[in-house]
Specification:
- This protein is an alpha+beta fold.
- It is about 15% helix and about 30% strand.
- The protein has one domain: 2-Layer Sandwich (Alpha-Beta Plaits).
- The protein has one helix at about 50-65; strands at about 10-20, 35, 40-50, 70-75.
- β2 and β3 (about 40-50) form a beta hairpin.
């Protein structure tokens, strides 16, 4: 059980949206990092406390009307300066 990650630990996610979202929305998205891509996509990246918080973020995405492309849990070994720590 040494490799077991407790469920109460935040999990890093990357949420990919179609279209560009202004950087001023970072506070509304609980401090997630907003990255705008050349492909006219927005990446929201950061730690999410639990599944309820993830669902809350997805409701905000829905309310903005930006199409959701993907949600990816970022493995801890890929964490770096721009990812969850």
């Amino acid at each position: 059980m040494d490799n077991y990650s407790p469920l109460d630990q935040p999990t890093c996610y990357q949420i990919r949206l179609e279209g560009h979202l202004g950087l001023q929305w970072a506070d509304w998205f609980d401090g997630l990092t907003i990255t705008l891509t050349e492909e006219s996509e927005t990446l929201l990246t950061g730690p999410v406390e639990d599944q309820a918080a993830l669902h809350g973020l997805l409701k905000k995405v829905r309310d903005l009307g930006l199409p959701l492309i993907s949600i990816v849990q970022v493995p801890s070994q890929e964490d770096g300066p721009d990812m969850c720590q």
